Amino acid sequence: MYDKFNRKITYLRVSVTDRCNLRCTYCMPECGVDLMSHKDILSFEEILEVIHFAVKNGVQKIRITGGEPLVRRGIVDLVRMISDIKGIRDFGLTTNGTLLDQFAKPLADAGLHRVNISLDSLDPVRYRSITRIGDITSVIHGIDAAIEADLQPIKINCVIKSSPMEEDAQAVAKFCHEKGLEVRFIKEMDLEAGHFSQVIGGDGGNCKMCNRLRLTADGKLKPCLFSDLEFDVRELGIEQAFSRAIGLKPKSGTENKINKFSNIGG
Ligand code: SF4
Q1: How far is CA 18 from CA 104, 216, 248, in A?
Q2: Using one digit for the tens of pLDDT, what is the confidence trace for 43-58?
Q3: DSSP β-ladder status, 220-222 and 231-232
Q4: Contacts of 218-223 spanning 24+ positions with Cβ under 8 A
Q5: In whole numbers, what is the pLDDT of the chain averaged over residues?
Q6: Ligand 1 mean position to 261 CA, how many Å?
Q7: Taking the domains of the chain in order of start, what are their residue ranges?
Q8: Gap between the terminal Cα atoms of the chain
């Protein structure tokens, strides 16, 4: 599938929940956000139908996101069903790592290839203040479990204010180097204001080369993170939703006034 700017669409990010067990300051308010109702959330069958269609039409890379995907009940079963779909070359999941200690091995056994883990600081006090409720030891244990389970490569997503030279970022980079992990720096983004930049050490945010679509947990197909455009796969049907999302995919991101990071999975 190509969009009108001749960009090949090969990557689908699938948010499986808007719920999270952390309250990161740059993602959601302390009190949390209004959660989607259970009936609004796509069932496993609906998610699989969308992924089947996407892969049949050229998507090769699937990433599971949230909220925090590991809080979705039955996530290991969903991963197993997705990994059975022929044609997926790159199957990853983005997590805050706090539950990974118990899920890494079952996810790897279910067919997941790799994980991206959020880690913005190694200082327990700083980590707690950024996540409001997080305990960094659970994340470190989760990283070790992912290494043990041979989920590869393991990439660490480190959110920065403006520069990888920031103290926390440097400590995370040193930690990743010592553990043989890849680090990517993501400057804090603002959906409403349209503030974003290319991921340092990754390809996110590079509009010229953008190859991705996003599926929200309640079934909206989004051609761009920094756009209000979205197409409901339940209302339009999967084929129509893809055709409109790709046909109207913007040349580059502007602003997004309708989504929150917590329900679009970044
Ligand atoms: S802002 Fe939109 S077009 Fe640009 S890289 Fe992100 S999703 Fe792609």
Answers
A1: 21, 9, 25
A2: 999 999 999 999 999 9
A3: antiparallel
A4: 218/18, 218/36, 218/40, 218/41, 218/42, 218/263, 219/40, 219/42, 219/46, 219/50, 221/50, 221/245, 222/259, 222/264, 223/3, 223/248, 223/249, 223/250
A5: 95
A6: 14
A7: 11-264
A8: 22
User: Count of CB atoms within 10 A of residue 82's CB?
Assistant: 22
Q: Do residues 220 and 230 make contact, with C-beta atoms less than 8 angstroms apart?
A: yes
Burial class from Cβ neighbours inside 10 Å (0-12, 13-18, 19+) for residue 185 reads buried
Ligand 1 surroundings by CB, under 6 angstroms: 196, 205-207, 210, 212, 224-226, 252-253
For ligand 1, what atom is nearest to the CA of residue 225? 7
DSSP bridge partners of 12: 62, 213
Ligand 1 centroid vs 101 CA: distance in angstroms? 32
* Tens-digit pLDDT profile for residues 80-122: 999 999 999 999 999 999 999 999 999 999 999 999 999 999 9
What is the 77 CA–ligand 1 centroid distance (Å)? 30
Q: Tokens 């805050």 correspond to what residue? A: 96
CB atoms within 10 A of CB 30: 8
Quote the tokens at residue 74: 């039955």
Decide if 242 contacts 54 (C-beta within 8 A).
yes
Residues 6+ apart with CB under 8 A from 44: 74, 77, 78, 81
Q: 11-264 sits in which CATH class?
A: alpha beta
